[in-house]
Here is the input.
Amino acid sequence: MNAVEQRYLKAIRSRVCHSCSDLMPDRICGLRERICPIEGHLRDIVQIAHCISGDRAGPYVRELRSTVCAACDHSQTSGVCPRNKRQACPMDKYFMLVFEAIADVHEELRAETEAAILH
Here is the structure.
């Protein structure tokens, strides 16, 4: 994972992890044995956030379903995801928080690039 991806992940963690249902009572992530699906699909999620514009969730969700969910271990060949039905998928539960964090980092990076060009 490169430095920019780490920056996105840090921002996502600061927005999502404290409210995640996998967080244990001792405030430690309950996913110690596996990678968080958001982290595991970070590159695709960031790419989707950058390629789709607008403030409506529909286009983002459709692209997530066709890109990320299609490659997820929990997805079934029928296209039905039992985690989505149980509302257990972090992609659905924390969708807005993830995309807000990505947008914030994207804006920070843009501002840093502009400042570097001006100086």
Summary: Residues 3-118 form one domain. Residues 69 and 75 are 6 Å apart (CA to CA). Residues 95-118 form the longest helix (24 residues). The mean pLDDT is 81.
